[in-house]
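Deliverable D4.2, example record:
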Amino acid sequence: MLSNRDRRRFERVAARAMRPGGRGSVAAVLGRLSTRTLLVTLTVLAVAIGLGGFYASRSALEPRAADLAMGGRPGAAPEPLPEPRAARPVQATDAKPAETRQADTQQAKATDARQAHLRQLQPVLRTDADRLSQIVRRMRGEAHVPGDLRALFTSHRTLSADLGNHHQEYSETKERLRKSLADQEEEFQQTGQLVATKLALAPAGEARRSEVVGAILEKCLARGPGMTITTRPDGYQYTVRGRSQRYSGGAAVAEDEGAAFAAFTSFTPEADVVARCESMKKRAVAIMASAEKLSADALVLAEQTTLPGDCKYTNAE
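Output generated by the structure prediction step:
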């Protein structure tokens, strides 16, 4: 359908064609045309006018290519609609009941307390290992360990007693070892007293009686020669239980040392002394084996990462 503008144009053209003039009128021209041809012509004209108006209005809206080439900017494009935000996942709430959470908390506290106590016991076990090694060395050299054995076996004033709550077998074996050492020391002292009563010593050497007894026991227990005197052109050397005193300047053997050496060389142990020495030698072998194994066991236990057993230190409450 023709627009109002096109219709008015058509009406003006038709009016001019109906006016008389000097030249041939439009009516005469139209008269020569058939009615059908006239209708086709007018239709084509209307379509051409409509298309021209359409493209003219479109070109006014779109940016020109020349403007874009010169740096012009097209009109701002309409902003896209914002995308809908993704729904945030609903956080799961702790569905554990209060009793379960309380149990988990208590379990965590118990674990922390146990690990802390484990770290307390590790240095105690390492000290045990070192002291047990000392026992092996002293038994090898002297066949007995004098002194306070309970203090020797107590690496820590309070925690040593607690080892039995966590390493029962180790603690029981260590206690048996302590008793064996106590028995060894008791028999050593009794044998020394027995030897002292049977030892014949000159008055000059009386002050060295305990020294001579110790030398006799060392030899009886097969731990050393006991006592020696070595003469030299410039003097002599007096040795008792591995400790030596050398004299030079052509000095003669001192009277007390000569009397002590004479008593040592003249002493012949009787059967009861020999029996006691054999008993102590056998016990010494067992003590050294046990102490050596316990020392190794203590180091192994000190490296463990878990602590068995329970005590007041592992109680988290």
